Amino acid sequence: MPTQPPPVRRRTTVKKELADAVAAVLGKARRALFITGAGISADSGLPTYRGIGGLYDGAAADEGLPIETILSGEMMARRPELTWKHLHRMELACRGAEPNRGHEILAELEQRLDRTLVFTQNVDGLRRVAGSKNVIAIHGDLHDLRCTACHWRTRVPDFAQLSFPPRCPECRAIVRPEVVLFGEALPPGPFQQFEDELAKGFDVVFAIGTSALFPYIARPVLVARSEGIPTVEINPGDTDLSEVVQYRLKATARTALKAIWAAYKALAPRRTMIGH
Predict the structure, then answer these.
(1) DSSP string for 243-266
(2) 78 backbone φψ class: left, alpha, beta (φ>0; ψ -120 to 50)
(3) In Å, how far from its chain's centre is CA 218?
(4) What is the pLDDT of residues 197-248, one digit of tens each?
(5) What would the CATH number be for the domain defined by 9-44+97-139+185-268?
(6) Mind telling me the catalytic residues?
(7) pTM confidence score
(8) Residue 77 to residue 255: CA distance in whole angstroms
(9) How far apart are CA 29 and CA 166, in angstroms?
(10) What are the sequence ranges of the domains in the chain?
């Protein structure tokens, strides 16, 4: 049998000159875009989706099916019990998690700059708990539920009280989370909101803890780079963006953001700063 590649080392330090350089960019910026993926929540104890030990890796091993099939809109319609099994698995992994320092720093930067946007693929809701207000959760939130047949909707703190697959209390049809499953279109409202934000322009673009596999995740970084706008990637592993961005911090989100935040505060010691 082929051997598995070794797990990515989670670097605990960031070169000071690199943190200083990114902080200097932030010090001059008025508008910042932060594109975040599962990696920013990994320091809250949540597993990432892809890679060794990831939720997607385990799901594929359990069922012998590609995760793109298990968590697809077609499978939800045909075998909702199978899709819900793995949605429940994802929710259990998120249950009880709290925002980490990386989430908090993004919320604090929102208070320092004229305009920031967190564009997240995550469905865990931690960015809002941390205090970020201008957030587009393009893949939805696992805790928002809707009936597949009628207008019933609700929000739940967790899935502890649900049967699987859950059914609508009004019409008994299958209930599903308000998340984008594989093979489904992105919600037009949030996507148009993102396009409108991009049209306003940003002075720096970050990609944090994301494999950037989807074109709509990578595109803002690629466009910014082509236009000479500073771009930053924070990720302990390599991605398709790693050779493209101007600044590459090969570290976890919390580690890198703490280093950048410390350097950013040092640039403006007279500012009233909230945080650590």
Answers:
(1) TTSSEEE-S-HHHHHHHHHHHHHH
(2) alpha
(3) 13
(4) 999 999 999 999 998 888 889 999 999 999 999 999 999 999 999 999 999 9
(5) 3.40.50.1220
(6) 139
(7) 0.82
(8) 41
(9) 47
(10) 9-44+97-139+185-268
